Amino acid sequence: MTGKKIVVLGGGFGGVAAARTARTLLPAEHSVTLIDRNRVTRLCGMNPMLIVGERDVRKTGRSLGQLANRGINFVESAINAIDVSGRTVSTANGTFEFDYLVVALGASYDWDAVPGSDLAYSFYDLDTARRLRRRLSRFRRGKLVISVAAPPYKCPPAPFETAMMIHWYLRRHGIRKDSKIIVTIPEPAPMAVAGPAASARLRDDLERRDIGLRTGVGVTSVTPAAMEAGYSDGSSIAADVIVTVPVHRVPQVVAESGLTAGKPWTPVNAKTLETSATDVFAVGDVNVVPFAEGKAIPKAGVFASGQGENVAATIAARILESAPPPAYDGSGECFLAYSTTQSALVGGQFLTSEGPQVGLKPPTPSGMRSKERFEQNWRRFRI
Ligand SMILES: Cc1cc2nc3c(=O)[nH]c(=O)nc-3n(C[C@H](O)[C@H](O)[C@H](O)COP(=O)(O)OP(=O)(O)OC[C@H]3O[C@@H](n4cnc5c(N)ncnc54)[C@H](O)[C@@H]3O)c2cc1C
Q1: Residue 262 belongs to what domain range?
Q2: What are the pLDDT digits (tens) for 170-200?
Q3: 173 in a structural domain
Q4: Which of 95, 171, 323, 324 is 20 to 30 A from 272 in CA distance terms?
Q5: The overall pTM is greater than 0.90
Q6: Of 37, 245, 350, which is best to mutate to test ligand 1, by the most ligand atoms within 8 angstroms of its C-beta?
Q7: Claim to verify: residue 264 and residue 232 sit in the same structural domain
Q8: Distance of CA 268 from the midpoint of ligand 1 (Å)
Q9: Closest Cα to atom 29, ligand 1: which residue?
């Protein structure tokens, strides 16, 4: 058998899991190459705690250069084009041929979709989170609004975790009574993807903490001085700190490859995560895996990672001509920290014959310990 070329695009959760698993399952004659424009990638899941000073910026990254120790070729380069029929990927540092391709390029942010949001605050990448951290360290009183633009967005619990952590921080500094926190979301209910019981519990938890919630409205604009946010129903909210969750889009290079077939995200076979092109797979935020009418598996690292592992097992089985792995089952749990010592878990299994078995487990100290372990494991490339 001649050596096969496995090329993985993107070194986030999905790409690293795919490359790591493929390397473990395949003999050395088959090459595994991972391409990312960034050598150091960041764990955005730390941002809701980072903005209140509870995470160290220096510990939010991992260097993809370390993949070489595991027998994976890492190429630091921007990916410019994916030629599905020609079986090549063009990058700023040359062209790579592939026999098997894993597209794990995540979601990109369209800040322009909400005019003025670049002047407001966010926590969806490290730079915006650091800026919000500086603002919160100066915050003494007033109104703070966290507004989501449109679904789908990464980690549906993240806006609520951020509100919970800001609530915790303001209480700790004795200024919670002088401040107001409001979360606005475009969905009809908070974290609806986890089912009605999870939504109801989260509503109660927000209410108990006096965190306001407006549903069914997406933020559409922020005034130039970033003091007022406008919403899809024509209403507006004036606030001292406006924090937005940006519109997410499929990366342009993926749209241009034809893999999305003009759809907003990359359609895949839900069982194998293979795209319309044979031996070309899409995992993580870049794809869409429906689990019910109009509903898709959330964009979260845990799902991207599970998908990367599943796809690598499929590729290994095809190369080694062995039995394929079990179908992808859509399982995973995200964290929703309520404080520095308590975290809830949200998730379960989305793809079962009885329908999704998902929910929200209450916040506990052991949930926080799991969250901390998750962060450490991520830094050590165990996830
Ligand atoms: C605030 C926040 C909190 C979160 N909390 C959690 C959590 O608690 N648990 C959880 O599971 N998930 C969480 N997530 C979601 C999680 O971060 C994403 O869902 C996850 O990173 C998706 O993984 P991915 O591999 O699909 O894409 P990504 O991790 O985004 O990786 C994509 C990679 O592709 C690279 N890339 C893109 N385009 C190009 C190009 N043209 N050329 C070269 N390289 C390119 C990027 O540099 C990037 O490294 C959170 C997200 C945010 C923003």
Answers
A1: 5-37+77-107+250-328
A2: 999 999 999 999 999 999 999 999 999 999 9
A3: yes
A4: 95
A5: yes
A6: 37
A7: no
A8: 19
A9: 12
